[in-house]
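Pilot study result, target chain (340 residues):
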Amino acid sequence: MPTTAPAVVQPAPKSWWRERSVHIALALWIASFVVVLMMAHGSLPFNRPLLAKFPYRSQVLVMVFQPVLPLVLIAVVYLLTRRRTVPDMATRAPDKSLAVRETLLLWVYGALVLGAGQVVGQKLFGEGIGLHLNGSLFGATRVQTPHEVWFWAGYNFVLYAMVPYLIFRVRGYSREALNLKSTNLRSDTLVIFVVLVLESAAELAAGGIFKLTGHQLAAGALLSFTVHLLGTGLPIMIFIYSILMPRYMRITGSATTTVLLGALSYAALHIFEYWTVYDSFQHAVLSLLVVAQTFIGPGLIKSFLTVRTGNAWVHLWAYHAIAPHVTVDTPVVVKIFQIE
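Predicted structure:
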């Protein structure tokens, strides 16, 4: 395994608001909404069926307040973990120069996989391969075939999860070095349970899963869990929260900046959603900004969960594999697989 450098001392949690990265993030967040308002001219060019009935201003407000629940969950997680020893992920990464090289190479690889997914998906199915199924979160713009769903799941699992995992294991990194081993199972389990209950309650209250029959609910939930675990849950976990997060911590020496970079990374992997539009400069800018505004909130809680527990599995079970991809997306999978 590549040699590791001495542990990086993390700043005290109470000083997070003083960090420059927080000030930059807030400034960019506000600027992104200013740019959207200037470029949208009163309408957004995205086909998102669940938001189609909402006027433009309401859609913007949804994005403005989208991070509220993740920030509430972050506060809850902090309270749950305030007495535990927080693992220093920087000690799990190699020295800073190697961490920078590995990070850059992984992102070059990720960009190639993202780009290839667009080409392959368009050629085979008429739509690029992203990190979400068509219909996930915002409603379907078309009905996919089961074959396409399994191809999507296999493509993402193999190229974002299995290949990077095997490469870094061959390079000598242990499961602990990849954030895949719990250092406090009792605390991790408590965090998973509390976050999952709170997030699921919010999603079930606004979702349509209870309109399904008993058989549709049982079969659809299991199938939705499986395809989304392979197609987005494990790929996101390995690519960002197992491999990149320890390197972000080594490079920056800051838990706060690492959380912000993790959130930005999560958004970056979603630039090719089924509803994004890149047919003009205006639409491309709007797509990138709205992707950031949509996914940075969830990315923050996923990243904070990983930093506080040092365990990438925690975010997967607490805030991804089940909520929202079972609680919200089961009706989409039921329709695709024609479950009666």
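One observation from the pilot: Residues 225 and 322 are 7 Å apart (CA to CA). A full batch analysis is planned for the follow-on phase.
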